[in-house]
Structure formats: structure tokens, C-alpha cells
Amino acid sequence: MIIRRLFLVVVLLVGLGSGLSAQEFDGYAIFTDGNTVDMIDKDGNIAHRWNCDLRANYSLFLKDNGNIVRGARDDDASINGPAVGGIVQELDPEANVVWEFKYSTSDKIAHHDICEMPGGNVLMIAWEIPGLQALQNLGYRGNSSKYPTHLIEVEQNGTGGKIVWEWHLMDHFVQDVDSSLPNFGVISEHPELMDINVMTDGGGGGPGGGSGDWFHVNGVDYDEVNDQVIFTSRFLNELFIIDHSTTTEEAGGHTGGNSGKGGDFLWRWGKSENYDTPGTQYIRGPVHDPHFVEDDGRLYGGLIQFFNNEGQNGNTQVDIIELPREGFTFTKVAGLPYGPELITYTHFALDDADGQSASARLPNGNLYVNLSRRFQYEVDSDENLVWRYSDAASKGFRYTCDHPGVQQLIAGGFLDNGICTPSSTTVVNENPFEATPNPSSGIFYFNDFVEEVKAMKLMDGNARVLNHYEGALSQLDMENHSSGVYFLKVIFENGNIVTKRLLLHK
């Protein structure tokens, strides 16, 4: 592996220069640094720049309407820590603020990653400070106050935002030190809960560690098909999945939602020692950027991809794994760790990165990699290097020419370097279709489609295809189906794919 790494780095740094197009680089890379967001073409030219009023805190995404949503820093924040933010903004192509939401108080603040949700909502990672006594009342043995993780989903509310869903780790602890306190139990018998006295890696320390950044949750993504959220913890060396179909009240308990498990962990993976279960430690150091690979025909669609910064041998790698899914939950044998036992795919990065970083599996099978504070590159499905750009971005993202946001920037005259051809069929619609009533007792009716529909697929709760329809339906008769959760995937002619959750109640 070391020989292979050295060979690739020599080719990268000596033979290819700062920009490369061994094959056509379709689209743009986008990244943020300080007060700017840059979108670059295949030659490394800045195709468009957003000059922002606030400093960034790493993460951003391009919306279908050509606007960007980014995490930003509250310079007057009461709480500080790695990748501290406190603000989320949507900016138009000229960097005007469309809406802004501040989540920064004396005891709560957003940090690290954000995630785009259906309908334009934004999922954010945050810290909260409950105080040392509140933690000790739950069986915490440490003597220093900690910042437990929580997640909030924010909806645009005029020029501001409002919280529409929350999940708090404080509601999902287990402890084995005091039977008179809440959540007393055997740690290995409750992997769905977090051991409040777990020994963590890095600055978070164990129960007595000095850093308030307890678990260092740093990446989050959303699975629209199963209505679930995945996040990574650097100091726990783990990935976690929770149920998003819950109400906020259900997310604070142990029942409810599609899974029936409330806000408990549905699955976790990377270091089973954290729940007192022997097994292979697959993540031995920092872990970042978890996401579900788009299941639209691309390579490894539907699987989990993440940045394993130290890998199995101390070298950075991008891993892909297949989940042991069983409906809306995951299989697990008592006394054994959560699966999978094998990693489906590993890409050994061209250099090592300890920080944020990012990766993406592209529609043509290529893999895009952003090595934090080093460089970005792209390899094809045979691991041949096809593009490279040197920069100092903590995270970078790739958008192909057919992405609606790219097309909107072209149509608006904000991208004019000729790499992409504007698409006459791309019409941005924030909510391409609605199903009414939903829930329904038998028949779902759909509004008129703004975009041309190529096909529609009806899937059951396990995402198995039940029916395939060519073109658009105005209504869907499900009188002969049993009550439950279904999904309708709409595939548009321009390549957009939207999935709607249908609830059938008879």
C-alpha cells in the first residue's frame, strides 16, 4: 500500500500540474474559505464567487434554484470550539442574504456540518450545555461539564427560520454505575443508547476529560427514502443512524416513528467497544462526511460512503459499506456488534488528511475527493487520476452540469465559461409534486407536474419496487394495498429524481 501511495503522489505532484482533464470534467467544484465561496471549473478557474458578509465554518450546499446555503460563524458567540458556527444563511448568486437563522446562545450553538432536507429545510449539528449537575444526575462520573450533541431541523420563516424538529443525545444515555439513577442497565444490552461514561478518543477525553466538546459530532446526512439521519462522531470513531420520522416528542423517547424505536440509535458502526461488545474496530481515528450514495443508477447507489481519516493502517481512505437493513431497522445478533463485517469498497487517498474532508460518488462512476487543507482530485472507476486542483479548503463539493442549481446559474448569466450547455428542459421547482390527501385511505391525487416526467416507481417500506409507470400519473389507486408506509419515486426527463413518502391508512 505504501509503494502504491508514493507512486500515486509522485504522478499527482510531478506529472499532472495544478489542473488536469484526462477526460472531460463535467461541471464544477465548490468550496468555502473565510468570507468567500468559490466555484471552479476543470482548469481551476474561478467561474463564480460569492463574497459573503460572514466567515464560514466549513459546510455548504448548492440548491436547485442556484442559491447556496452555508454555515457561518457568530463572532460574538458565548461558546467556542472546533468548527463553531451558530448561523445558517441562504445566499442568492450575488451573495444577498435570502434568509438567516442564528442558533447561538449562552448554552447552545450550531457547529460543523449542515444538511439539505426535502422542501428546503436545513438539518444542523449543535452543542448544548446542560451543566455538570444535570449530567451527574444521569450517572455521569466525570467532574467537568460537557457539551452533549443535539440536532435541529430549521425551516425558512420569511427572512428568518424556525425549528421544526429536534433530537437530543441527553435523552438517550445508559449507565451502569448507580441503580438509583435513570437509565441504569447493562451497557452491552443497550447498544441503542450511549454509555454516559464511555471513554472517548481525542480532546473529548473520557468521563473526566477536560474538553467540553464531548463526542465531536462533525458530519450529518439524510436518507429521504427511509426518513433517517446518519451522523459521525470523531471522538467515538463511530457512525450512527437515527429515525427522523418521529415527532420531536417521540425523538426524546424510545418508541414511535417508522422504526418504532423513537430517538434511540437504530444502527451504529465503527467501534463496538463503545457499547461493551467485542469486535473489529473499523474506524481507528477521526471519521467525517457520512452520506448515502444517491440511488439513481450510479455506482454503489444506496450504500453509505464516509471519510475514514486513519483507515485500518494509519492512512486516509474513503470507505463504502452496505447496511444490514431490515425494513426501517437493522439486523443485529445479541452479543455481537452491528454489521457489516466487511467494507464493500475502499479508496486509498492520495495523501493523508486529519480534518473535515469530503467525497462524492459521481453519476459517471468517478470518485471526487477533497482532502482537508491539501487538495481536491477525482479518480475514475479504475482508480485512474483524471483531475486535480490544489487549494486549502476544509471541505469541497462537486456538482455536475445537469444539476439544476448549475443550470440556474448558467441561465442567470452567473456562469459563462462555456463548460456546460444550458438545458431548456430544466425548470426549478422547490416542490416538484404533492400527493393529497396524505395520509390517504386509498387514492392519492397529484398536482400538475412542472417538469416532464419520464417514469414513476411505487416502492414498499423496504424500498422494493412494486410497480413501474411510464410517464406521469394524475392519481394513484392503492385500494388493494395494505395500510403502511410507501414511497413514490418520480424520475424527470432532465435527470431530477424526487421521492415522496405516502402513508396509507385504511
Question: Helix and strand layout, with pairings?
Answer:
Blueprint: H1 2-15, E1 28-33, E2 36-40, E3 46-51, E4 56-62, E5 68-73, E6 86-91, E7 97-102, E8 108-116, E9 122-128, H2 132-136, E10 149-157, E11 160-168, E12 173-174, E13 194-195, E14 217-223, E15 228-233, E16 238-243, H3 248-251, E17 267-269, E18 287-292, E19 304-308, E20 317-321, E21 325-326, E22 329-330, E23 345-348, E24 358-361, E25 367-371, E26 375-379, E27 385-390, E28 396-399, H4 404-411, E29 435-436, E30 443-446, E31 453-459, E32 465-470, E33 475-477, E34 484-492, E35 497-504
Low-pLDDT stretches are: 1-23, 423-431
The number of helical elements comes to 4
- Describe the largest sheet: 4 strands, antiparallel
- Span of the ends, CA to CA: 58 Å
User: What amount of the residues lies in strands?
Assistant: 35-45%
Approximately how much helix is present in the residues?
Answer: under 10%
The count of β-strands is: 35
Q: What is the average of the pLDDT values?
A: 87
Query: Strand order across the biggest sheet?
Result: 3-2-1-28
**SSE-based structural type:** mainly beta
Computed over alpha carbons, the radius of gyration is: 23 Å
Give the overall shape, derived from the CA principal axes: globular
Could you characterize the architecture of this molecule?
The structure is a single chain. The model is unreliable at 1-23 and 423-431 (pLDDT under 50). It contains 4 helices and 35 strands. The chain is mainly β and 506 residues long. The chain is globular and about 65 Å long. The chain has helices spanning 2-15, 132-136, 248-251, 404-411; strands at 28-33, 36-40, 46-51, 56-62, 68-73, 86-91, 97-102, 108-116, 122-128, 149-157, 160-168, 173-174, 194-195, 217-223, 228-233, 238-243, 267-269, 287-292, 304-308, 317-321, 325-326, 329-330, 345-348, 358-361, 367-371, 375-379, 385-390, 396-399, 435-436, 443-446, 453-459, 465-470, 475-477, 484-492, 497-504. Helix content is 6%, strand content 37%. The longest helix is centred in the first third of the chain and has 14 residues, at 2-15. A hairpin with a 4-residue loop joins strand 34 (484-492) and strand 35 (497-504).
